[in-house]
Amino acid sequence: MRLILIAFQFLTIIPLPFGIRCEKEDLGRSTAFFPLTGLAIGGQLAGANWLISPWLARPLCDALLITLLALITGALHLDGLADVCDGLAARGGRERFLAVMKDSQVGAVGAVGLVLALLLKWQALAAVPPEIKWQALLFFPALARFGQVLTMTGARHARQDGLGAAFALGTGSTALFFAFATAAAAGFYLFGFKGILPLAAVCLLTCAGRLFFQRKLGGLTGDTIGCISELNEILALVVISAVPLIRQ
Hints:
Layout: H1 2-11, H2 24-30, H3 34-52, H4 58-72, H5 76-89, H6 94-102, H7 108-126, H8 133-152, H9 163-170, H10 173-191, H11 196-217, H12 222-242
């Protein structure tokens, strides 16, 4: 239970009414429960959709849901996406890329990346058929957080400091197996065997992103993990909305 709460506390800004003891090795072990936390986040989105959708037009409702997702997570991974966009736009090698990502200021390319990512996520959600919208809202945050575990497991680290390294050092095959089992079970419950499609897409994008950053930077950072997670949220919604066979 303590590891679940650690995962929830890290991935959301929702305050807990009590303190939690957290050792350094607990960070990596808590990643086993990242998809479960994603389901909790998705449950809040589905609940909000149930409350506001009867009163608002679909585009406005979906925009508010994407806003709520950013608020619940404290825009943690959006910040990583912006930093990576700035790093990719910077001229220079590995050290320059890392230095730009570490800068707390968001550049022009990072701002453009944020706008495009939020626009794509909003439109992908708007394209989800109404009859499976609540399933999609539950599932896509869990898939992206499973992608975080897949990204970190066995990866090299571009920096030895920072939260990304602390989490990745403690993430192992057991955490990955439990995270995968949670995501797969959620997909099967919500979509039947068709749930394998967005899960497979997230696995492919995660492996491609991990390979790219390990070649580009010699390892991963917290920002690159967050960037891949944001791309996975978009991809999961796109697959759910675009593949006719997944519709029920």
